[in-house]
Amino acid sequence: MAASNTTVQAAHEIARKRAAECLxxxxxxxxxxxxxxxxxxxxxxxxxxxxxxxxxVLVMVMFALSLDLILGYAGIVTxxxxxxxxxxxxxxxxxxxxxxxxxxxSGLFAAAIAAAIVGFITGWFLLRYRGLTLLMLTLAxxxxxxxxxxxxxxxxxxxxxxxxxxxxxxxxVFDYDLYGHTYYLYALAVLAVVFFFVRRIVYSPFGxxxxxxxxxxxxxxxxxxxxHWRLVMVYTIAAAIAGVAGALFTQTNAYVxxxxxxxxxxxxxxxxxxxxxxxxxxxxxxxxxxxxVLEDYFSKLSPTxxxxxxxxxLVLAVLFAPRGLLGLLExxxxxxxxxxxx
Amino acid sequence: xxxxxxxxxSILFDGLAYAxxxxxxxxxxxxxxxxxGFVNLAHGAFAMAGGYLVVTLTRTLGxxxxxxxxxxxxxxGAVSVVFERVLYRRLYKSTDLEQxxxxxxxxxxxxxxxxxxxxxxxxxxxxxxxxxxDVNLGFRYFPSYRAxxxxxxxxxxxxxxxxxxxxxxxxxxxxxxxxxxxAESVGINVDRLFTLTFAVGSGLAALGGGLAIQLLxxxxxxxVLYLVLFLIVVAVGGLxxxxxxxxxxxxxxxxxxxGKYLLADAGGFFIYAVTVAVLLIKPAGFYGRE
Amino acid sequence: MTAALQVEGLNRAFGALPVTRDVNLTLExxxxxxxxxxNGAGKTTLVNLITGVLKPHSGxxxxxxxxxxxxxxxxxxxxxxxxxxxxxxxxxxLTVIENLCMTxxxxxxxxxxxxxxxxxxxxxxxxALNHLDSLRLTDDALKLVRELPYGRQRLVEIAIAxxxxxxxxxxxxxxxGVPSSESHLILDVVAALDPDIAVLIIEHDMxxxxxxxxxxxxxxxxxxxxxxxxxxxxxxxxxxxxxLGQDSHRGGRHG
Lengths: 342, 290, 255
Known about the structure:
The complex is a heterotrimer of chains A (about 350), B (about 290) and C (about 260).
Chain A: H1 2-25, H2 34-46, H3 51-73, H4 82-98, H5 104-126, H6 131-151, H7 153-156, H8 181-203, H9 205-215, H10 217-222, H11 227-253, H12 263-276, H13 283-301, H14 303-320, H15 324-341
Chain B: H1 3-36, H2 43-60, H3 65-86, H4 96-118, E1 134-136, E2 141-143, H5 144-166, H6 168-178, H7 180-185, H8 190-216, H9 222-237, H10 242-263, H11 268-281
Antiparallel strand pairs in B: 1-2
Chain C: E1 5-14, E2 17-27, E3 32-36, H1 43-51, E4 58-63, E5 66-67, H2 73-78, E6 81-84, H3 96-107, H4 122-134, H5 150-163, E7 168-172, H6 183-191, E8 198-202, H7 206-212, E9 215-220, E10 223-228, H8 230-234, H9 237-243
């Protein structure tokens, strides 16, 4: 009798320790996390003539990452995320074209702040709603911003945009070069900094609360969580990051038009994220890269074929791979570990 | 007639015609979303398909315009049932996001197919004589086509209203929209009801698409471009409500027309401002259920 | 002495149908009160009114003497009011221990922190594990909630409520849906609750009621029919009449 009691107790102790360790260690960097960064740096050396394209991929990764915070972690579905991308893009564009403010890094900060302000105000009002109502409100907001730009096309350049922007050299030293090398590394560095912050947020208690809101918002209210305030916070942060992505877009393209606010843009980034897998941090990396590469290849072959293909991929993804490519990888991994066990 | 009155009448007339188009195309979406909660973003593609069918029927096969409309509506309605049975049915229990993504994927495929078959340039249809030119309504001449649209719209509204409010099936649909579980427990076969509603709604969308050719022009991007509009009408009107869809179509149709008339460039702004205003005050739309 | 929970003249109707009629209820510290009544009496509605899920048309709710009628659900939870739901409301995609860490994190305001990792809060994890220990859930700590059998999920539901360290606890049919082979787990937990907490339990099973309750409130058609000690209620002819014609079988659904 006594022996079985102590074994039961010992088993308990082990279970306790395992649970504690699992939680305490979760935020530590796994070695696999270095992979995407290694690949990004390798690309620099392997594809030196595709670096302008590479910068666009990095911009989209950042954009998708910002969406992951609200869609993947907090579970909020919107159709107007391009609004913040556009605000950031135009902050830099207008500053350069109308105010002759061409210092790139301060431009990023300005874009982040502008987008955060728009995110905070719209989030405060709109995040009280869900479902179709929220989809329509966010969509309408993005379109209204676009239309406002169109109203004063003398300032914004309308749909023709603001072409031929130039920017001061980075940190006063690194100048824009024709092959886009400087800007690729610049974008990569900014992405790394942004990612560092996003990762911290995701593993923090705040990030935990976000998943709680996603999983069961009724329960969150019942345990005393200030749900609306949390949602507005994450929405503001996501807006700021999308704004930085937009700013980078303008800087790397030296050009911006009102099409950055298009519904198409909001839909595109959502597809990228779903493709990679939501709520997984690296889903944005995988999804954006795969999408951009495929789009680049196929839309050159035939834009119609590309559109059909991406539609088909979406349908198949929803039916067979709802958790994205990373989800498939995960399942494959589980399948193999189970096979090994048996 | 004083100038502003002339403008007002023009706005009302054109706005009404536009509203009829919005209503006919959106009503199916409203009822199906209210009934099954299924977010069908391929609805615009059904409308587009109807339009292109009418183009083929009238131009290639020489069928008259009005018969083409009817045929297109019937064909698309029937085909939509296949989609519902084979594909949509699997997602009724899925999240909104998955439904959105699947149906957007279908819409993209439809657009690509249309581009492949018909090319990206907008198409037109040959109209019968009585639909061309103007008709004299006493104090003014109005474009016949728009008058036709208004009359057709009014007729359809009457038919739908009767079907909805006065028939057995209509009562069942209303009950199921109101409380699906209770309706099922009383023996209403909601699945079959949904298939029927879906077919009728898609057929109406196809009809709307056919009517839109002359009014707005038809190109493959129609499917997504006007989808936003249909969603707005549905959201503002309230899911599952005939009255709501009609009211929303009228309000939005007239406001949009007014905006474009009076403020040209800024005109597009109005319809979205109205949408935001309505949804902030009544998030479920005019006649939606909270 | 101020009561832990006081409900005064609470009224609520759904359209033309009154579902809560002029209800008065008092829970002293350490109370063990059962709320019983036939199906459709409005028991869960009353709990929803008390916790802030619904707003009353008139009446007041006081927690430790403070009027909380105008506050929302989250505010009331932060002031020490916890509840379980008739149907589990858990974070099904998360592990059991994450469910508890989340609750404790929100309770202590940790969840405002965006910088430090959740894992660095050793105290939170320890407390979560203690709660799991007391409910014999430690072995399930790393399992996803949706993978647990329903009875154990119900325990997690109670664990969450307890992890809020409430002053007032409202349990809505805690044993509902739990197979009878496992219901003793729930009942043991309920019996072993901290004597300082004021507890209101909605229950259909009369054995549970008489075993647990020191006082009983009978709710019929939204109004308080009668209140008293278990023996008073048991011997009350009118209460029997109200229940006659009702199947007093276990696991009735609506409250």
